[in-house]
Amino acid sequence: MKRRNFLTASSAVVGTSLAGCTSFTNDQTNDNSESNTENSVDESQYVYVNENETLAVVNGDPYVDGNEFGGTTGVTGIIENISNIDMDYALIDMTFYDVDDVIINSGFDVTNSLPAGVKWQYDCSYPYTEKYEIWENASITGLEGY
């Protein structure tokens, strides 16, 4: 499975978002909505493709909703079912790290239905209570569906 890091430019989560790259910023978005044909997934058009090439992260945007005293922070974006199978369940897991690459939290999102070819908006986040708890980078640690 390919693991890619989502890096931010500052602890205030001013990140980047480029097609096929590993970083995100809030001022750019990535819309790679082209569909794939079976057995020919062009991984370069996605931020992340799971091991069995059934789900792909199309984009992700970091955010902080709150202030230095607390709120919610994470990554929101689009996942596409690139298979020809209707899924009853899809999950994305993310791990968030501080500036020293120490895990400070994790987040996940789940949907109970993701038909073939359909996109789903995910939100992996966690609550924070102090400014130092805002993540510096994040990586996808799981993307699965069945």
Overview features:
45% strand; Immunoglobulin-like; disordered N terminus; mainly beta; 4-stranded antiparallel β-sheet; 146 residues
Structural description of this entry:
- The chain is an all-beta fold.
- It has a single domain (5-145), classed as Immunoglobulin-like.
- Helix content is 0%, strand content 45%.
- It is built from no helices and 8 strands.
- The strands form 2 sheets. It has a 4-stranded antiparallel sheet with strand order 1-8-5-6, with no helix packed on it.
- A hairpin with a 2-residue loop joins strand 3 (55-67) and strand 4 (70-81).
- It is elongated, with a radius of gyration of 15 Å.
- It starts with a strand and ends with a strand.
In N-to-C order, the SSE pattern is: EEEEEEEE
Strand portion = over 45%
Describe the strand arrangement of the main beta sheet, using strand numbers: 1-8-5-6
Number of helices: 0
Tally of extended strands? 8
Shape: elongated
Q: Give the termini distance in whole angstroms.
A: 17 Å
CATH fold-level assignment: Immunoglobulin-like
Q: Roughly how much helix do the residues carry, as a percent range?
A: under 10%
CA-based gyration radius: 15 Å
Q: Quickly name the level 1 CATH class.
A: Mainly Beta
| Secondary-structure content class | mainly beta
Largest sheet geometry: 4 strands, antiparallel
Low-confidence stretches: 1-39
- Name the average pLDDT: 77
**Count of the separate structural domains:** 1
Q: Which architecture does the CATH hierarchy give at level 2?
A: Sandwich
